[in-house]
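Input sequence (341 aa), recorded before submission:
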Amino acid sequence: MIVRDFANGFSVADWTEELVYIPNSWGTIGQLGIFQEEGVAEHVVIFEEILQNGALIVDRVRGDRGNVGKDYSRKLHTFAVPHFPAVDYITPQDIQGKRAYGDPSSADTLDAVRMRKMERIRREHAWTLEAARAQAITAGTVYAPNGTVSQNWYSEFGKSLTTVDFTFGTSTADMISKGEAGIAAIQDNAGSSTQMTGVVALCSPTFFANLISHPSAKTAYQYFASTQDPLRNRLAPNGSAAAMHREFSYGGVLYVELRDAYNGVPLIPAGYAYMLPTGTDVFRTFFGPANKFALANTIGEPAYFFEYADPKGERIEIESESNFVNALYRPELVIALHSSN
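Predicted structure, C-alpha cell format:
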C-alpha cells in the first residue's frame, strides 16, 4: 500500500484501505458465499489438477504377479486475471456554488464529493463482480466483454453441462423428484472427492413462479411461507428491504429467486435455474494486484482507489481498478434446470 505524504498536498494518494471500508453492496450470489475468495500476487493463476484414479483389484492365482497400479495423473491449468479499471475526476466546478446533498443550508465540500464518487465506484465494482459470477455459473465463461481474456471452464476441463427438465406443464410431475434428480447429478459428478454442505438453486423469476405454483409444490410453499419468518426467508444485501428475494427450501434444495438484472439483461436467463453445491472449495474468485509499481507482487485486494492532484489545483483525477477472475474448478457440479413444456 502507498502511504500518503501529508506534507506534500500533490503527492499520490492510495485510498485502497478507505475504499475497503466503504460497505460493499453484496448481491445474492455474494451473500450465499458460493465463491471462496483469495488474493494472488500475479496477473496469472496456475494450479495443478490431480486425478486420483484407481481400479478394483481382481483376484489372481497364488504365485502369479500381483495387480500393477499406476500413479495419479496430473495436469497444469493456467488462466489470466482480467483487468477492470475505472477513471473519474473532480474539478472546482463540482463544488463551486453547489449546496450539500440533503442540506439546504450548507455548501458542498471536496470530501463529500470524493466520498460520493468512492461509494459509486465501490458499488460498480460490486455489481461487476456479481454479474461476472452469474456468467461463470450460467455460461461457464469468464466475464471479459471486450475479449481481453477468453476462458471456458467446460472446455478447460473437458466437461459438459447437465440439464434436468422440470416439465412444469405436466400437472402430475413431481417437483421433489425433479430436484432429487439434480442433487443426484451433482453427487454423481462430484464423486467422493468433493465435500458439500447443501444445495442451492439460483432461479429466474419465471422459474421460481412456476415452481411455487405447480400442483405438487403449491401447498408445501404455502405452508413454508406462512410458518416461517418472512424476513428470514428473504435475502437482502446489507439488510436492505428494497432488494429482497424470495426463497423456498423444498426437497433438500434451497430455491432462491434472483431478480437482479443489469441494463435490462437478467443475471439468470428467463425460465432457467442453476443448481450447485454450497460449502465447497471448487468455485473460486481470485483477486490480482493493482497495475502500479508499488503494488507489484503484492497480494491482490478486491478493489483499489488512487487519487492524483493537479499541481495547478484545477483537477483531481481518480483512478480505481479491480482485477479478478471467477474460476470453476468443477464446472460439472453446476446443473441447469428448465422446463420443456
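Checked by second reader. Residues 110-139 form the longest helix (30 residues).
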